[in-house]
Amino acid sequence: MSKALRRRENISGYLFLLPSLIFFLGFVVFPMILCVYTSFFDAKLSANVPDAFVGFQNYVTLWKDPVFLKALVNTFIIVLVSVPVVCVFSLWVASAIYKMKEGALSFFRIVFYLPVVTGSVAVTVVWKWMYNNYYGIFNYLLKGMGFIEKNINWLGDPKYALACIIIILLTTSVGQPIVLYVSALSNVDQSLVEAAEVDGATNLQVFWRIKWPQIMPTTLYILVITTINSFQCFALIQLLTSGGPNYATETVMYYIYYTAFKLNNFGYGNAMGVILAIFIAILSAIQFRLAREK
Amino acid sequence: MKKYLAILLALVLVIGLAACGGTTATTTTDQQTTTTTTNNEPATTNTEPAAEGEPAAATEITLWTYPIGNWGNEEAVKALTDAFTAETGIKVTVEYLTYADGDDKVNTAITAKAAPDLIMEGPERLVANWGANGYMVDISDLFDDTDKAELNAAALAACFTDAGAAYEYPLVMTAHCMAINWTAFVEAGADQYVDRDSHTWTTQQYLDACAALYAYYGDTFSGIYCSGQGGDQGTRALVNNLYGGTFTTADHSAYTWDDPLNVKALKTIYDLQGVEYDPSINGGEEIANFYNGIFKMAYCWNIAQQLNPNSAGTGAGLTATGDEIVFMAFPADGDPALQGGIWGFGIFDNGDAARIEAAKQFIKYFCDSEHTADAVRTANYFAARSAAEGTDLSAIWADNEIMNEYTKLMPYLGDYYQVTKGWAQARTAWWNMLQQVGASDGSEEAIAAAVASFAAEANAAAQG
């Protein structure tokens, strides 16, 4: 290919990229830069008081803010519980269904994917009914079966509230990993599997030595995506608990929203956003590193 | 050829994107909001010319309104704005906000320098928040001596800052109250503790009624909702009224809810059987539980709810199952102090004198003219003034039995303290405090500690 032709094709390619690039720069890169920039200011919603440069003050204040620390702990609990559970559960389900006939396979894929495509508000409303303190189905069943004497205020009791949120998060998170794992397992080289079986490998050995390495890229993708989604848990909190009771379900994402949009303290909220992004980046890097070593 | 085709495609895409992004102020940008523009041709004969030296009014303005009675109803508001357009020639584009995300939208619009010309809400937002932060136009010139004489003194005071600037022109007001399921009260024998005629009861009568209800139903019949998201005026009023505690200082410079009388009230509520601090529900959900017969009392109530309980359209003053609802003042020894609701219009300072002038015309038209009665009726609340330009407003609800009965509560309107600085954070601190009290062991020390901690947080916000 001649240089001129290659240049022409490059230009064409970039022109096709341009619309997306404009969106990416305008709605991702520019806000990110602005977020970091604003985090160094005492930026509040006030025309009377100009934003004041405070250096790292917002970042220092963060670590003395008990609500932020509580939100950070809650966020890590959500991540540490949901990421392994989502991965293991979706791998288990995918392993069980990927060899099924097309009709049955589609049925299960639909069942598990339905919460993903259903609007989060609709999902949340249904769960809120089920958790309801006065007429929820969980209390109705548990009381009916004699497991509890008095209704449990699932979302109103600090002992249960975060677990309730995590359960909803799991149901909305496993759909995509299951579909991905079904696809990845279907693409495992069958000749290697058969060869291993001929050589006398057990099912566990076949899985661990043959299938697992081949689905590792999928696993890595699922780990990273689930980690990011778990860190960014917001809608459930906003719609169900507003961070309560007694900060039991406060997450960093919700606290950012509350600080920025309810208290109009944009500088402080952006500082939290930067810290959250750093945590996500570090965890994702660790996951990539471990996966590469594996 | 290929190159030109690529350039053409890219240009089409870019122009398409630009076109998509270039929405005008009259375009609805969110599926949850509805936008309408009045299209009536103006009747030129009635249009008042701008006074000499004043800028000519713009011909288009925008109004964002929270759901204040039927001011949240597109059909009702369109009838009003159409009439305004016909008389003044000024078109009004209306966007309907919800309390769930209205503040976020307004704040986002302010930061994007796209705030509406007019906004309809109360002094806690218009005066204490956006006004205090320099985003509103001082409209004190709209109040002449006659207006000041006609306007309710509490409403008037709430719309002005200490420095004399006015950021809201009040249209309607009400007193927030609580409600009881009268049918359930009768069944439980708790009706004996209620003065149905005056709609008042003492603290002891309230406690006795609670005891009777629990003895009869044996389960939770009332929830101190505290998941946030609004309605907190009800829980504040209950706590403050039980033993006469206060929420702020008289000059609204500090929060005083760590008053020992409030601690005593919170402890009393904690000890009441059948009344639970419930962090899983908010004010709206409490109303729904009351309407559906789960709760026998509701603390998040006012005349709008009495006229149309749970906004369900199933009959005034009735629950879903047809039980009778009676509105009540909060229990107090002596006169109760009810939380007020004052709603009116404010103008955002968008730097356009012509639009500000048009917005002022809108305010005078709806808040101080012969058209005020229609605007008040649309809100389903009480007029914030006795008369407007010769039109008597004191009897506009004479033909409505429920509204007439509700006027018995209006003299109990208490201090409008929602204009205290740091209000947004103080509200959050209040419901977080209720959550902590509910989760505590119920000892007076634990309750006092929670109260002190969150009152301190609110006061820190008040200090800025």
Descriptive overview:
The complex is a heterodimer of chains A (294) and B (464). Helices cover 74% and strands 1% of the residues of chain A. Chain A has 14 helices and 2 strands, in the order H-E-E-H-H-H-H-H-H-H-H-H-H-H-H-H. The two termini of chain A are 40 Å apart. In chain A, 31% of the residues are buried. Chain B is α+β, with helices and mostly antiparallel strands and 464 residues long. Chain B has 2 domains: 31-175 and 341-411, Periplasmic binding protein-like II (D-Maltodextrin-Binding Protein, domain 2, 3-Layer(aba) Sandwich), CATH 3.40.190; 177-337 and 421-462, 3-Layer(aba) Sandwich (D-Maltodextrin-Binding Protein, domain 2). Helices cover 41% and strands 13% of the residues of chain B. Chain B has a 7-stranded mixed β-sheet with strand order 1-3-2-4-11-5-12, sandwiched between helices. A 3-stranded antiparallel β-sheet of chain B has the order 9-6-10. In chain B, helix 7 crosses helix 8 (203-217), helix 9 (232-243) crosses helix 10 (260-271) and helix 10 packs across helix 17 (444-462). The model of chain B is unreliable at 9-52 (pLDDT under 50). The interface between A and B is large, with 38 and 41 residues.
